[in-house]
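Changelog-adjacent note: as of this version, every example in the card shows the full chain rather than a window. The one below runs 241 residues end to end.
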Amino acid sequence: MNFKLEVIGFTIDACMQAQAAGVHRIELCDNVGEGGTTPSHGFIKTAREKLHIDLYPMIRPRGGDFLYSDEEFEMMQTDIKLCKQLGCNGVVFGMLHANGAVDKKRMSSLVELAYPMGVTMHRAFDRTADVFQALEDAIDTGCERILTSGQKPNAMDGANLIAQLIQQADDRIILMPGSGLKSSNVAELATMTGAREFHTSARADAESKMSFINPAMNEKMRSVSVNTDEIKKIMDNLKDL
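Full-length structure tokens:
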């Protein structure tokens, strides 16, 4: 089977390690504590220069919900234009109305603005009030892909719903399971859902390389990286299917 694996990159070192481990795509993000926000101009530019695999920066002006003001919408437009100028392959975003419906009008305009880049709708999809209608709405906006955990915190718990959504999609859009995906469950998740693309953080902490750390400060000075052994195990388990 032709499976693909996407990994979140919160640092340039993590991106390069993931690429070396054989992943197919990087979702570029800042602010791990907020669940991912738009990376800086410098981060996007450097990642595009260093990576030869597909690069999809997150377009999310802040943490929290996905109900955005007009000013935040303008920010998203500006960041999408920047990603296009820098040669990114795609972008990742999602917008909702207050009632939990997909904001089709504004999302469609962003998809059009992003072209010819691809668009993944992120896990704002998992906050929608009617997930089956949200799937049709995402297709109508022109998104090529949806990242989802099946409206559960963990994709394994949402596997049955993801399988239903893949059946409903009928190859009109890609459903990509993510959240809690690891080498120990990716084969089972693939079998249960029929998905062909998968998303993981494969998260690991990178210890500081400072030779001096002030003992009076209680911060650990760690950064977020990736576990390349875990990435390779996920890839191997997918290849064995």
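Structural remarks: The chain has eight helices and ten strands.
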